[in-house]
L,D-transpeptidase family protein (Stappia sediminis), 203 residues
Amino acid sequence: MRGIRLFVSALLAFAVFGGAASAQNAATGFFDSATKKWVSYRLTPEAAGAIARSKYKRSVVRYRTGEKPGTIIVDTGERRLYYVLAKGKAVRYGIGVGREGFTWSGTEKITRKAKWPGWTPPPEMIRREAKKGRKLPGYVPGGPKNPLGARALYLGGTDYRIHGTNEDWSIGRAVSSGCIRMLNEDVEDLYERVGIGAKVVVL
């Protein structure tokens, strides 16, 4: 019964539909104990984004670390980013992380901050996507359609950034080429908290 209630709730709240779906659509489901079968369904990107917003809602939490206040700690396995506060607390945000083959860890510093940044795809990404039959533009100006979203925090001398996204459904997933994605309102909040030189620890 619990599985059925969850399914009905999803139908009412998130516009569930069946059949073919694009890569952005979230496949999910539940085990129906009455029929002893797995019932699968798909969510629209908008519905998946709404779920991500609810599951990864920004909050202040207790957080134990030896890092100083002002440090950013990215827990890729947990799909969370922590901005360390004083007195054993931190602001916790949901994130999207690098997909298999694009994960990384280490310590960097914020070397640049940008509002509504433009995006220039790296040459290796252009080549990689071309092999899949997808032609990337040479440059995308800042704005709502830009994949870097509302803000970007550049990490050291790398190509990696902590940035916003126009794909809310990707929060909580491993889908990027190594960058750390955040909801636009979350990266805007983090942007105002951190300065150039802030330490970033990626686990």
Notes: The first strand starts at residue 26 and ends at 32. Residues 1-25 have pLDDT under 50 and may be disordered. The radius of gyration is 19 Å.
